[in-house]
Amino acid sequence: MSLKGKVALVTGSSQGIGRGIALRLAADGADIALVDIQAEKLAAVKSEVEALGVKATTFEADVSKRDQVYAAIDHAEQKLGGFDVMVNNAGIAQVKPLADVTPEDTDRIFRINVDGVLWGIQAAAKKFIARGQKGKIVNASSIAGHDGFEMLGIYSATKFAVRALTQAAAKEYASQGITVNAYCPGIVGTDMWVEIDERFSELTGAPKGETYKKYVDGIALGRAQTPEDVAALVAFFASSDSDYITGQSFLTDGGIVYR
Ligand code: NAD
C-alpha cells in the first residue's frame, strides 16, 4: 500500500496509537503532520517519522477547539504541500459508573471524542473540496463503539457517536470522492489503558493490572493489541486499496466483539 506523495495528518500522535499510525503511514511513504496538545512529545515523534525518509511537521492543537483543527490542516497543507488523509485519532477515556457522571464529565469527553472528530471531518472535507481533489477521512471509534462497556458508559457513548458521524459523513461527502471510515480497536497497551486500569482499581478495589489482564485474557487471538496492529487497518483506509469502502466502522480487536 503505497502512500508516496500523499500528506496525512494524525491527531493525538504524540504517543500510543496515534504515534503508531504516524509511523506506519510514514513507512508507507506519506509525509506526516503530527498534531497534539503535547507539543514537546511531538518533536520526538517528528524525528522518528523523518528517520523513515519522509517529511514531517508538528502543530499544537486541541481537537475540541474548532478553529485549532482548521488551523492544523492549513499548517499541514502549507508545510507539506498538500493534504490527502485526515486521521481523527485523538481521544480520552473516562472510567465511572453512570450513577456518578456529572455534566462536567460529559462536556469534557464529548467535546474531545465527538466534537473533535466532527471538526476534523468538516475541516478536512472543506480542504479536499477547496483543493478540487478526493480525500480520505479515518476516525477513531472502539470496541466500545459497538458494545457499551460497564464503567465506560459515557466513553462508549462517544464512540457510538463516532460511528454515527462516520456513516453520515460518508453519505454527505461521497459525491465529492471523499471516503469516511472508522477503526475500532480492542485492548491496546497504551497510556490510556494504564489510566483505565488505575481507575478500575480505585473504583472496584481490583489489584493494579488485574482489569487489563482480565480484558486481555478474553481476546481470542491470545494477546494484547499493539499500535502497529491498529495502524495496519488505518493504512488500508488511507490507501487506494479501500477506495470502494465508505461509512464503515471496522473492528480490529483480535476477537472480542463480533459483528
Ligand atoms: P493515549 O492516551 O495513549 O493517546 C491519546 C493522544 O491524544 C495523546 O497523545 C494525547 O495528548 C492526545 N489528546 C488527548 N486530548 C487531546 C485533545 N483535546 N487534542 C489533541 N490531542 C489530544 O490513547 P491511545 O490508546 O493511543 O488512543 C488513541 C485513540 O484510540 C483514542 O481515540 C482512543 O479512544 C482510541 N482507542 C484506544 C483503545 C486502547 O485500548 N488504547 C481502544 C479503542 C480505541
UniProtKB/TrEMBL annotation:
Active site residues per record: 155
The protein's GO terms of the molecular function aspect are:
diacetyl reductase ((S)-acetoin forming) (NAD+) activity; quinone binding
- As recorded in UniProt, its EC number(s) are 1.1.1.304
Entry keywords, A to Z: NAD, Oxidoreductase
GO biological process, alphabetically ordered: acetoin catabolic process; fatty acid biosynthetic process
InterPro entries (alphabetical): 23BDH, NAD(P)-bd_dom_sf, Sc_DH/Rdtase_CS, SDR_fam
Entries under Pfam families matching the protein = adh_short
Swiss-Prot/TrEMBL catalytic activity:
(S)-acetoin + NAD(+) = diacetyl + NADH + H(+)
Where do the coiled-coil regions begin and end? none
* Binding, NAD(+): 15-17, 36, 62-63, 89, 155, 159, 185-190
State the family it belongs to. Answer: Belongs to the short-chain dehydrogenases/reductases (SDR) family.
Q: What is this protein called?
A: diacetyl reductase [(S)-acetoin forming]
